[in-house]
Amino acid sequence: MTVTTVKWGIFGPGGISAKFAKDLRHAEGAELLAVGGRNADKANAFAEAHQIPRAYGSLEELAQDPDVQIVYIGTLHTVHKDNALVLLRAGKAVLCEKPFTMNEAEAAELIQVARENNVFLMEAMWTRFLPPIVQVREWLAEGRIGEVRMLKADFGFNIGWQPDSRLLDPAKGGGALLDAGIYPVSFASMIFGGEPQSIQSVVSIGQTGVDEHFSLLFGYEGGRSAVLNAGVQLGMVGDAYIYGTKGYIHIPKFLFGKTASLHENGQEPVHYDDGREEQGYNFEAEEAMRAIREGRLESDIMPLAETQAIMGTLDAIRTQWGLRYAADR
What is the per-residue pLDDT for 167? Predict the structure, then answer.
């Protein structure tokens, strides 16, 4: 069966967009047609590096390209909302890099505008679409480890002392929670299917005023729990463990999800390895294209209500810490 081609644009010719552009070549039926940025020279250089036919020096120009159907936003999260609003109002489908927005209020605004304009919108939580993570969801749905009781997940890296880095700059939405911590928080949402009933946390606020590393304890109905850690000044192994009443699942470096193992009580472990060479951004692109081809306005796997709820959870955590950004005012 022939797959209908979907024509893509990218806004934000930076590092994450380069990874996305490279992997988009592996997505069946995807055509990368255009790139846009605030700087025309950078957009042109990006276009040349990735063999993209069209380059624009502004978001407005990209939004008005009649052939572009969907745009991947790879800019700083402080401008995700404003970037997405321009595109949605121009009738473009949007795949927006995580964190979706700076807070829940911004997320709610984007979702409302997308629905008013009858346009597809999805958070680019790429980990959720990786084949090993898909396999993990299947194991859980089959009840292979019984009732899930506990999750442990970490993601952290140490950038060293770089006070001018965006990761430590509050004006650029810096801090561990929005950049690194959203991965284990979103993973917990996927595993437990809802928001935590209780949140306990410990945080290290650094000299620049943002969270450098933290630990979270989420409580769910029936005594279920998630223990989550993240940081930008602290390297972590990055594994995830899902513990159930009949065994456990281990996902090494869960953010990148290339392997997973199922450990059922009394059984030999079952190992899953997708053997892919690409990083895996193509899988989230394929999910977005499936929805567009089917006329759906959101993903069943990363639904908008869940994205908004996750932003609300992040807001609640930051409230405990007294950490606010300009977008919160």
Answer: 96
Whether the pLDDT of residue 71 is over 80: the answer is: yes
- Mean pLDDT across the stretch 314-329? 96
Work out the angle at residue 286's Cα, subtended by the Cα atoms of residues 49 and 278, and round it to the nearest 5 degrees: 50
Helix (H/G/I), strand (E/B), else coil: 219: strand
Q: Is the pTM of this model over 0.90?
A: yes
Taking CA atoms, 213 is separated from 32, 193, 201, 202, 206, in Å, by 37, 25, 11, 9, 9
Please give the Cα distance from 225 to 196 (Å, whole number): 8
pLDDT band at 1; cut points 50, 70, 90: low
- Residue linked to tokens 């069209």: 54
Structure tokens at 58: 């502004």
- Residue 2 φ/ψ, nearest 5 degrees: -75, 135
Structure tokens at 267: 């059984």
Cβ within 8 Å of residue 2, ≥6 positions away = none
Q: Mind listing the pLDDT tens digit for each residue in 212-221?
A: 999 999 999 9
Q: Which residue has the tokens 């928001």?
A: 195
CA-based radius of gyration for the chain? 20
What spatial distance separates the first Cα and last Cα of the chain, rounded to whole Å?
51
Q: What is the C-alpha separation between 11 and 283, in angstroms, rounded?
A: 19
CA 15/CA 97 separation, integer angstroms: 12
Sort 218 into a burial class: Cβ within 10 Å, 0-12 / 13-18 / 19+.
Answer: buried
- CA 65 to CA 9: how far, in whole Å? 9
Is the confidence at residue 329, as pLDDT, over 90?
no
Q: What is the 3-state secondary structure (H, E, C) of 34-76?
A: EEECCCHHHHHHHHHHCCCCEEECCHHHHHCCCCCCEEEECCC
Per-residue pLDDT tens digits for 244-300: 999 999 999 999 999 999 999 999 999 999 999 899 999 999 999 999 999 999 999
